[in-house]
Amino acid sequence: MNGIRLDELRIDPLTGEISGPGGREKLDPKVMGVLLYMTQRPGQVVSREDLLANLWPNTVVSDDALSRCFYELRRQLSLAGGNERYRELLETLPKRGYRLNGKVSFDQPKRRTTAIALAAAVLVAGIVALLIVRKPVDSLSPAASAPDSIAVLPFLDMSAEKNQAYFSDGVTEEILNRLAQAENLRVIARTSSFSLRDEALDVPRIGKKLDVSYVLEGSVRKAGDRLRITAQLIDVPTNSHVWSETYDRGIGDLFAVQDEIALSVAAALQVTLTGGKSGERMPENIAAYEQFLQGQFFYNRRGPGDIDRSVRYYKEAVALDPNYARAWAALSGAYSLLAAPEDHRTGEMRELQGEAARKAVEIDPKLAVSRARLGQYYSHIGERVKADAELGAAAALDPDDLLVMGFAASDAVWRGDLDQSVALWRRIVARDPLSPTNRKNFAIILLADGRLDEALAENLKVLELLPDAALDVNTNIARIRVLQGRHEEAQAAVARLPGGVLKDYGIALLYLAPGRRVEADAALKRLEAISRDFEATVLLSEVYAFRGMHDAAFARLQETRHALEGHEDRRPHLFSYFQEELRFSPFLKPLHDDPRWPALTADYW
């Protein structure tokens, strides 16, 4: 068999193996590509730029990914050689590149050396595209020739004890995040793809529900320091396999395997991975990463006590690796939830939120999520200028990150740019179609912007995804139908509201509906009678404004503002609700042109 010799090692480009005194090792295609490229230049200094440009000419690959290739190559050289000295065959020259110091020779007679060298060069150029995909491009289905969307389903936990869900979820999410950096590929967000975890759906139905062309599924088995990860890419229209692979590795190779899967899928779909998040520093301590994944598991689950649990794991992660920026950013996010207005620890948690966010940015100012979390913190404490700066920096670093987009959408609202907010929420919902929270937020912005038909459609989708949201949804549907002048539909929506303040609010808005004026006036009187109730006061103001009773509306709103002034810390949830109603309520829009409006909303935005 033709091959290449490196000192006492034999390299077989066709099988992707190296063998020697220590045994035989199978190399990943990318790693073999690096080795073959270096064997063409023994003794020469090869720059990182040269390697990236020649081995990945149409793909943006991070320096970190290249470093992992060399790490893996050194490890397998030492295993095949049976001696650690084989690691030294590949020398790293700081700020210059790499050098292969071994003796390279070809098995063939000398007159054929040029031909073999040329063949090896061709293998180097094509090895990533051909060996990673493992099948000719022509064999792909028609849909795969122009990929546009993929869902990464949660990889199954195949551990014996079935107690590694946090780990398999983390592996899945990391692969999903890497694929999200691909150009011209819509990657469904974690919330939506993971929501199908327990549903007995086949691939075609999953594809239809998420509106995707491809599905990536797999499994993870972790036993001690060994990993087995399987992954398979399925074409939805034909329900056929496009690519599959099994990886048996040590736990220390986890990051490399995640990269390999993402790159392999990208190659199979003929899309380009950009730098994005893949350029962030991963923790050197794998135990820190495991603690981070535990934290992510509880943060995402959101059951009783889960956020406190996530904080404990995130704190353990940064204790093991103090320079783990993403864990600091995640810790800031968890503290932000614990600083909710109704929590007695609000002040303490808010301070810790800021400390963690600042630490994340200090460690890695180029990590988008770090800047986003710091921007979130500044927004929460009312420092809008600083919030705008940090959120703008996050968007510039990674505009496709869902967290960054969500914060940017909220920031756009507070800047008064509803068009920009709608555009961002539209992108978010396209990526995360099964998230009722995102659709509720989108519906609020659509309603505030007067896009009533779209707001109605989003509310109906929320109700489909989350029947428990019926109260909020029916209230919003009633409001939309009233604004549209669709009296029959409005009355039907109001009829579904429970008795009390909300019911009277809905009825009071129906004063223009044929035959409902007397009933609407009676409901208005009942609202006025309980106006000491904070919610009733705000809703009453909306009814006044909608009915053209502007003086009464301003009087109630001013009264409410005065009641809240000086008590923001003690009643932050009421203060926040009042601010949001002033900004978003479509029923208060008639007041915006009144000269009294600027004074009412002064210092609120």
Tell me what the structure shows.
With 605 residues, the chain is an alpha+beta fold. Among the domains are: 4-132, Orthogonal Bundle (Arc Repressor Mutant, subunit A), CATH 1.10.10; 139-279, 3-Layer(aba) Sandwich (Rossmann fold); 281-398, Serine Threonine Protein Phosphatase 5, Tetratricopeptide repeat. Helix content is 56%, strand content 11%. It has 26 helices and 14 strands. The protein has helices at 29-39, 48-55, 63-81, 113-133, 165-179, 190-194, 203-210, 254-269, 286-301, 306-320, 325-338, 346-363, 368-380, 384-397, 402-414, 418-431, 436-448, 452-465, 470-484, 487-495, 501-508, 517-529, 534-546, 550-564, 572-584, 597-601; strands spanning 4-6, 9-12, 17-20, 23-26, 45-46, 90-93, 97-100, 104-106, 149-152, 156-157, 186-187, 214-223, 226-235, 240-250. The strands form three sheets. Strands 9, 10, 11, 12, 13 and 14 form a six-stranded mixed beta sheet that branches. The chain starts with a strand and ends with a helix. Residues 109-147 have low confidence and may be disordered.
Tell me the radius of gyration: 29 Å
What percentage of amino acids are in beta strands?
5-15%
**How would you sum up the major sheet?**
6 strands, mixed
What CATH architecture label of the domain at 139-279 applies? 3-Layer(aba) Sandwich
Structural class, please? alpha+beta
Mean pLDDT: 83
User: How many angstroms separate the termini?
Assistant: 74 Å
